[in-house]
Amino acid sequence: MEFRVRGTAGGDRLTVPYDVSARTANLEVVKILIHSTISTKRHWATIDIKDFYLGTPLPPGHYEYMRIHRSKLPRETILKHRLDSLFHDDYIYFEVRKCLYGLPQSGKLSQTRLVKHLACHGYHQLPNVPCLFKHATRNITFSLVVDDFGVSYQHPSDFQHLIETLKSNDYLLTIQPEGNTYLGMHIKFNYSKNYVTISMPGYLEKALTRFRPHFLLPTHRAA
């Protein structure tokens, strides 16, 4: 599968002729939100949007093009969609009108679509804190990292309102009512003792495996 990205050449890299950067909530903002949740005895939950990049329209006049070799397509798929007559030199060519994974603009366009939809239902980004959202009238706040929501709320009806808002735009959701994991962190609230534990099991081991040169001895070994 190959993409042809419409744009101008910059060295060996093709660029898209509009801004494709998408912001995410800072990790410190997420931790403060979690801390405020336990401090104010609010509820915490997480939501993940499935296939977030799929379905967002590309801007008119900025469609992309791709080709797929015959060998990459199952024979049953070719027969089902009657593709045999559309191959040229064993490739089939497509005009792409909606976002796909692999396109550099997918993140920005998908985020813009989501933010506009949320705004229509009263959820607005704080002006000085990127990707931290509050509702205009409901007691609910959430951080947004790509398609992952960390939600702090007072009343179950407010959380349900957010869920219904997302579903109304045909988003498929994975919901964790307890919010035990978020952005690779394991989160455990203890409301009776008023504290929250955040951990990342295996993080140090993975970091050492990745970044420690093989010829260096670990610090706990004797010389």
Low-confidence stretches: 1-5, 7-13
Examine the coordinates and then state which fold CATH places here, giving the name of the CATH topology of the domain at 21-52 and 106-211.
Alpha-Beta Plaits
Number of beta-strand segments: 14
Helix fraction? 10-25%
Q: Termini separation (Å)?
A: 52 Å
CATH architecture of the domain at 21-52 and 106-211: 2-Layer Sandwich
Name the overall outline. Answer: globular
**Largest β-sheet summary:** 6 strands, antiparallel
CATH domain class name of the domain at 21-52 and 106-211: Alpha Beta
Q: SSE string, helix = H, strand = E? A: EEEHEEHEHEEEEHEEEEH
Global structural class:
alpha+beta
Strand order of the largest sheet: 7-8-9-10-4-11
Strand residue percentage? 25-35%
Mean pLDDT figure? 88
Tally of helical segments = 5
Q: What is the radius of gyration?
A: 23 Å
Protein architecture, described:
The chain is α+β, with helices and mostly antiparallel strands. The chain has a domain at 21-52 and 106-211: Alpha-Beta Plaits, CATH 3.30.70. Helices cover 25% and strands 30% of the residues. The strands form 4 sheets. The chain has a 6-stranded antiparallel β-sheet with strand order 7-8-9-10-4-11, sandwiched between helices. The radius of gyration is 23 Å and the shape is globular.
Explain briefly what this protein structure is.
The chain is an alpha+beta fold. Helices cover 25% and strands 30% of the residues.
Topology:
Blueprint: E1 2-4, E2 8-10, E3 13-15, H1 27-39, E4 43-50, E5 64-69, H2 75-80, E6 91-96, H3 106-120, E7 123-125, E8 132-135, E9 140-145, E10 148-153, H4 156-167, E11 172-176, E12 181-182, E13 185-190, E14 195-199, H5 203-211
Antiparallel strand pairs: 1-5, 2-3, 4-10, 4-11, 5-6, 7-8, 8-9, 9-10, 12-13, 13-14
